[in-house]
Design goal:
Elements lengths: L9 H4 L9 E6 L14 H4 L7 E6 L9 H7 L1 H11 L1
Length: 88
């Protein structure tokens, strides 16, 4: 797929309208030693794309470990609770 090696260009290449609603955003609280955090991973980069409230949830891990079991145990309850609230 063309452009897969340059994700920073994706927003310009595929413009979308802002999401008109609240959005939970999960961010890594830890830095990767020797790695400069990508500005696209920060909450401020998402703000222009969300019409509602941006709910930021810090995960005590670094970006590349957020899909591990320990991190998912912290992430999973957030959307689960939102779905429960929407059903009631």
């Amino acid at each position: 797929m063309p452009g897969c090696t340059a994700p920073a260009i994706w927003p310009a290449a595929f413009p979308t309208a802002p999401f008109d609603g609240d959005l939970p955003l999960f961010t890594a609280d830890e830095e990767i030693p020797g790695y400069r955090r990508d500005p696209l991973h920060l909450p401020g980069a998402w703000r222009p794309h969300v019409g509602g409230r941006l709910w930021v949830h810090g995960v005590p891990d670094h970006h590349y470990r957020m899909m591990r079991e320990e991190s998912l145990a912290r992430i999973g309850p957030v959307p689960a609770a939102a779905l429960d609230r929407a059903r009631s």
